[in-house]
């Protein structure tokens, strides 16, 4: 862990960076591509370019989660503020552009601090500085870290509660066992009687899901391919991006969308002196997006030590927000 130089903080209250935000990329790529079903972790979508592509996805007409969740946040902001109470430090896991948090911050009574946590260092700092400029009286303490790995939350003077914020149904990117692990770790970090406001995508008609993950403009395809672009740019790989096709498929018995990059023909790819063979039609599995019904998610949260306190859904039952408290 290293502190950024004070002169680079600008309007930020502080900044912390963990080495594991970047140190395992090559090892993970080599290990994942050696598996019988080749895999690359979805967390490696998110360099600065990938983060901005995801922001573009959130604006697509087919991509319902962002606008639906944003509508829920606006409609129920007063309720969230009453549940959370005054002088709370808000920790956002996977903060991205820190846009939805503004709805919550505007509703909260005298929030003590905002602590965004994200693996994409440059995008994190850019977003955190913009937010700090917009909220000059709010301490903003960005943490560059992989939130699925251990890291310490700072103590905030005057903070009466520590609240987690995890929007976007990012929890769906985890396997069910990994989701329990994350929620258990978050419960420990946030502490007894503290809360977590979390967005969870609901099970729905597969036609809606297919459109959301296979948009007509091809932005999701470009986002998916960004992981190969990163391997080329940062690890010296020689992937031909034109030789792989984006494919998002619904796996009904697992209740999830799977994203893959499918090799269009037989080919070899070299990375850091290692060679990987692809046959035509073979894929790299890049992301899962699990969908839940309300009761299913509450049962999963209970395994991790959380008590489901309240939840909200939209009129079309596309998306849900849940307020959990550490049991």
Summarize the model shown.
By secondary structure, this protein is of the alpha/beta class. It is built from 10 helices and 14 strands.
Main attributes of the structure:
three-stranded antiparallel beta sheet, Rossmann fold, 327 residues, 2 domains, 25% strand, disordered N terminus
Number of domains: 2
In percent terms, what proportion of residues is strand? 15-25%
Strand order of the largest sheet: 1-2-5-4-3-6-7-14-13
Structural class: alpha/beta
CATH fold annotation of the largest domain:
Rossmann fold
Major sheet: size, sense and barrel closure? 9 strands, mixed
> Helix share of residues?
25-40%
Poorly predicted sequence stretches spanning 5 or more consecutive residues: 1-7
Overall shape: globular
Q: What CATH first level of the largest domain would be assigned?
A: Alpha Beta
**CATH superfamily assignment of the largest domain?**
Vaccinia Virus protein VP39
């Amino acid at each position: 862990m290293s502190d950024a130089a004070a002169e680079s903080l600008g309007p930020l209250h502080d900044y912390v960076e963990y080495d594991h935000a970047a140190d395992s990329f090559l090892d993970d790529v080599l290990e994942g591509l050696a598996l019988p079903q080749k895999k690359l972790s979805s967390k490696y979508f998110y360099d600065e370019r990938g983060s901005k592509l995801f922001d573009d996805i959130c604006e697509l007409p087919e991509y319902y989660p962002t606008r639906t969740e944003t509508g829920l946040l606006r409609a129920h902001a007063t309720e969230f503020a009453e549940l959370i109470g005054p002088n709370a430090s808000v920790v956002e896991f996977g903060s991205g552009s820190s846009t939805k948090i503004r709805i919550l911050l505007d509703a909260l009574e005298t929030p003590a601090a905002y602590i965004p946590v994200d693996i994409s260092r440059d995008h994190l700092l850019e977003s955190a500085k913009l937010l700090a400029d917009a909220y000059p009286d709010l301490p903003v303490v960005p943490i560059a870290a992989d939130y699925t790995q251990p890291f310490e939350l700072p103590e905030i003077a005057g903070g009466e509660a520590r609240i987690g914020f995890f929007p976007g149904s990012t929890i769906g990117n985890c396997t069910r066992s990994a989701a329990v692990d994350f929620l258990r770790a978050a419960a420990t970090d946030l502490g007894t009687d503290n809360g977590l406001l979390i967005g969870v995508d609901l099970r729905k008609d597969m036609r809606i899901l297919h459109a959301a993950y296979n948009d007509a403009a091809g932005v999701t395809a470009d986002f998916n391919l960004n992981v190969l672009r990163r391997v080329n740019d940062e690890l010296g790989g020689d992937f031909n991006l034109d030789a792989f096709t984006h494919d998002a498929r619904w796996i009904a018995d697992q209740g999830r969308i799977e994203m893959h990059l499918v090799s269009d023909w037989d080919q070899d790819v070299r990375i850091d002196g290692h060679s990987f063979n692809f046959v035509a039609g073979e894929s790299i599995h890049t992301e899962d997006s699990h969908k839940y019904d309300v009761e299913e998610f509450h049962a999963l949260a209970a395994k991790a030590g959380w008590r489901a306190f309240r939840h909200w859904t939209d009129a079309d039952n596309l998306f849900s927000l849940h307020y959990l408290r550490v049991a």
